[in-house]
Design goal:
Shape: globular
Bound molecules: acetyl coenzyme *A, oxaloacetate ion, magnesium ion
CATH architecture of the largest domain: Alpha-Beta Barrel
Radius of gyration: 20 Å
Number of helices: 12
Helix content: 40-55%
CATH topology of the largest domain: TIM Barrel
Order of helices and strands: EHEHEHEHEHHEHHEHEHHEEH
CATH class of the largest domain: Alpha Beta
Largest sheet: 8 strands, parallel, barrel
Number of strands: 10
Distance between the termini: 25 Å
Number of domains: 2
Low-confidence stretches: none
Length: 299
Amino acid sequence: MNPNKKRLRRTMMFLNAQKPGLIKDPYIYKPDSIMLDLEDAVAENQKDAARFSLYHALQEIDYRGCERVVRINGLDTPYWKEDIRCAVAGGCDAIRIPKTERPEDIKAVEAEIQIAEEDFGIPQGRTLIMAAIESARGVVKALDVCEASDRLFGIALSGGDYTKDLQTYITGTGVELMGARQNLIIAARAAKIQCFDTVYTDLNDMEGFRRDVETIHLMGFDGKSIINPRQIPIVHDIFTPAQKNIIFAEKVVMEIEDKREKGIGVFIVDGKMIDIAFYDGAKRTIELAKASGVYKGGL
Ligand SMILES: CC(=O)SCCNC(=O)CCNC(=O)[C@H](O)C(C)(C)COP(=O)(O)OP(=O)(O)OC[C@H]1O[C@@H](n2cnc3c(N)ncnc32)[C@H](O)[C@@H]1OP(=O)(O)O
Ligand SMILES: O=C([O-])CC(=O)C(=O)O
Ligand SMILES: [Mg+2]
């Protein structure tokens, strides 16, 4: 398995692949991933220019460990195959497929990636895939999409196009996204891949943004697509385990391992009942803390 499949992705920041001011140094804001967009942020008559600028950015800029995902144009456009060739030739880490509805969409993109990896001498399997779900049909087919390829590290809800398809709109309350969010996180977990929430486009409403991120964090998402560096500290604050939770998780892991030796199955840690069912969750908190660079313990 490509080890990058499971990497930390709390923040996946969109930027227009054609804008020098955005692509030159987005790593200074420390998002976990950047998503260089060739799709909706790029005007129809600028697609070639954006692809050209994308290729040179990928080749020449050191993004300092920040994952480089490229959002290609939809499979119903004349652009997507050339988008993949330029992104793979440039050495991107992953392709984001917009408006994914069927497992065949993933397979078609995978086949083009494979050809491009061969043509440009990129190791087979290096380029990962993520799929954005942007329609009612995509939500219904989510599990089939999740299981379509070994290269697929995750799926993402894209609320703008999805609510248009549902014949509603983004309200800021999240009520219109409830079913899709629930469906996607369940499908992703069933397939053991990651799941990401949609962008929040009102940059003047940071309180609403925080509430939105708190909700999707509690629902089990791995992170969120974002559009602006000002959104990064809020997502990282919510998605990075707090020290008191890390310390508790350590105690749980150590106590479970110790009590197991002694033949004890259920016991109390800091007033809370603990048994083996809590082991994986505690381990996950520690792994997340390590990946986020905030782990100070000894496990
Ligand atoms: C529904 C969809 O399809 S979403 C996906 C497509 N949309 C996008 O890609 C939009 C990405 N975001 C942006 O382009 C911008 O954030 C905008 C247009 C929304 C707002 O732009 P601004 O008003 O300039 O934002 P703001 O004033 O907060 O910018 C502050 C700094 O952050 C930089 N910045 C803003 N957004 C980004 C970004 N997404 N990536 C990298 N840097 C960014 C700006 O260049 C600016 O840098 P500077 O101080 O060196 O000049
Ligand atoms: O992926 C996203 O969140 C942005 C997007 O394309 C949409 O909302 O339609
Ligand atoms: Mg969209």
